[in-house]
């Protein structure tokens, strides 16, 4: 019983801690956006190559020979180990439970009859909307 109370109280504490962290982070974000003035930076010029300048080509690198990889040695197959059988556990006799006492049948109560209610018919509402003006 004590562990159940401990688990529920620790879960409640963790939830409260999580909620406080989320509120602190949202408040910090709000303060950061409000307090920091937005600075405007000048637009940087785009770099361009001078007219007539060609892009130099990369030098060609000769391919290196691939080294030969030795084959892996063959692993001998090992025999599968035999799994030992589980020990036989004797069956325990089922405990005898006492029979439940018989529940007496109670008479079903009759509900009183309710008077029939008739409502008068509702009047149909009439709506009068102004005509929309034509737009030039």
UniProtKB/TrEMBL annotation:
Source organism superkingdom? Eukaryota
Q: List the residue ranges of the region (Disordered).
A: 34-136
Keywords on record: Signal
Pro residues bias located where?
Answer: 104-124
Q: Which PANTHER family match?
A: MUCIN-2, PROTEIN PELPK1-RELATED
Nucleotide-binding listed as a keyword: no
Report the protein name in the record. Uncharacterized protein
Here the segments flagged for biased composition (Basic and acidic residues) are 34-49, 125-136
The signal peptide annotation in the UniProt record is 1-27
Asked if the record carries the keyword Signal, the reply is yes
């Amino acid at each position: 019983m004590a562990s159940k109370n401990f688990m529920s109280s620790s879960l409640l504490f963790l939830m409260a801690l999580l909620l406080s962290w989320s509120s602190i982070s949202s408040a910090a974000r709000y303060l950061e956006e409000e307090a920091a003035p937005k600075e405007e930076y000048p637009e940087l010029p785009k770099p361009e190559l001078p007219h007539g300048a060609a892009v130099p080509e990369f030098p060609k690198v000769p391919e290196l020979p691939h080294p030969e990889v030795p084959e892996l040695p063959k692993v001998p197959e090992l025999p599968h180990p035999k799994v030992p059988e589980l020990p036989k556990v004797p069956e325990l006799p089922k405990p005898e439970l006492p029979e439940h006492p018989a529940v007496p049948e109670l008479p079903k109560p009759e509900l009183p009859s309710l008077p029939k209610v008739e409502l008068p018919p509702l009047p149909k509402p009439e709506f009068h909307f102004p005509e929309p003006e034509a737009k030039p």
